[in-house]
Amino acid sequence: MRVVGARDLDTLVVVSAEGEYFDASIKDLEAEAVGQVRSGTSVDPKRAAKVPAYVEALGPLLGNDRNTKAAVTEAAKKLGISTSAAYDAIRRFRETGTTDQLPPPTRPGGRGKSRINPKAQKIIEEVLEATVLKRGGAKPRKFFREVKRRLEKAGLQVAHATLADRLTKIPEHRWTKTRKGYNETRKTHDPIRDHYPEVHRPLEVVQIDHWKADIEILSDDRLQVIGRVWITLAIDVYSRMVFGMHVGIDAPSTTTFAMAMINGMTRKDAIAERYGLEWDNPMCGKPERLEADNAREFTGESANASAAHFNIRLKWRPLGQPQYGAHIERLNGNLADRFKDLPGATGATSTERGELRPEMTAAFTLEDVTKHAWMIVDEYHNDVHTGIGMPPLERFRSYYFGPNGQKHRLPDVFVDNLQFRIHWFPLVKRSIQRYGIRIDHLDYYSESLEWLVRNRKSYGQLEIRRHPFDVRVIYVKHPDRKAEDPDATDQDEWIPVHVRQLNFPEASIHELQAARREALRRKREPTPELLSKIIDEQHRHIEEAVKKTKSAQREAARQQHHNRIRKEAPVPAARSGAVPRFVQPTSTPASTQSDEQPVRNGKTQQAPAEGSIAAILAGISDDDVEAMFE
């Protein structure tokens, strides 16, 4: 309230904040004011510091009923304020009677500061923390609705535009950290404190990664869409040439990593011949350092053992520092852009997928996609790369050859044979027992293990490499070959060992593990006999359902892809002491078999049991024998 006049010496006329006038005795006003401080008031240190200057400049004018404009202007100049501001100071003194009110009150805001009521500011901050500034925060409209409800409850009011401005002024770093977490904030907002080390020669550093191609593919008969493919890609950082690539249906694993490394270290002539490509692709050899992310297939025991054998230093990218994988990420993006124009392209979002309709436009099989990917790689090798200012192929060649001939030693050439591939096959460790070795419920034994079985307590667990596309054979690393045979060579280091059940079907590790899961689902012990039966059932089911469902088509395509790799892989040479791998003759369908049994010496002979030696010999004709000796 404010005093505006007086009735007499004991009674004053006051006006309330609502504009109502009434009489109040001085005695009552004094009793109400004694010892009380108005709620919400606080000491204003900035205002209190100005009081002495205002008293010195305006003091002579405070006791006068009237002051000339010249006198007020002169006092205002001393204070560095306008004349109207000086009149306001005198008015505040006359209304309150205290010199503390001479300086104007300090505004709650100011340039660059908020002028919102402190209570309202507190409410806004609390609602921000409870709604939008938290992990997976709500949308802004919930913030507006909740803050307005609480402000109305507190008798306060803040304009909607002010609240919207409050949201926009939240630092982006704080917004990302509270809603997405520290790791995402570090990736997108924190400064890059380091740079990628300089690379001086080809194969000094190779980066490898996987990506899922944005394209739907068809089954080999082109009747069904079976899904997208995975591509494992490796790049030579110095030249930017593609070091190796594997295209397949299998998700990233130790096997896909191994296939990409086998492809990268060996020459690419077989690929050019297979797909009818005319190119110049000399990339091959052993990388000095292999950089990858922290996925299990890159950090596992198998990857470490393979890299150690070839003296390749594995290095995993530092978390939160994407510049260490920028080269492979850029190559992935380059290929992804090229795939957008292909039939069956899915696009990067659900909206793009709806517009492109990949199920309707798909035209490539797995083989088609693989060939096209290599064609893109060849084009990429011969285009100018902005990062190095020349084509990758020219960069690679210019390191080894110049105008005056050869400058540096050429990279090593690795022959794609079984001995080479074994070192990239999935690795497991098992101890040898009297019955041999057991892996995934299958028992493996060979006469070549006899010495190891007798001395098994001296060596503990042995290194074993599994053929990823044929579980019927494993390769055991002999821990001390010279002790058994002083004349042995390095070629005899790995012992091929076959599964005891000779009629076990041809299957990949993926199929064997799927059969094991099916056996456990049936609540049955996954014995070799049951696993063999389930694998056969799965093969028949795929053949029957191959034209019915997309998932069956995908499994059929996976099986055909594994079969192609299996056939292309080098065949192991015969080794003394190894159990021969027999090929079972194709049995005659039940519908075409005769009920009559062969008769010899007047007695009906029983048909030899399936899988027996007699059945095998019975399936060999005279023509086959003659062909063997020719």
From TrEMBL:
Biased composition (Polar residues): 584-607
Superkingdom classification of source: Bacteria
Gene3D superfamilies for this protein: Ribonuclease H-like superfamily/Ribonuclease H
UniProt-listed Pfam families: Mu-transpos_C (PF09299)
Protein name, as recorded: DDE-type integrase/transposase/recombinase
Domain Integrase catalytic: 198-400
InterPro entries documented for this protein: Homeodomain-like_sf, Integrase_cat-core, RNaseH-like_sf, RNaseH_sf, Transposase-like_Mu_C
Bias-annotated ranges (Basic and acidic residues): 547-558
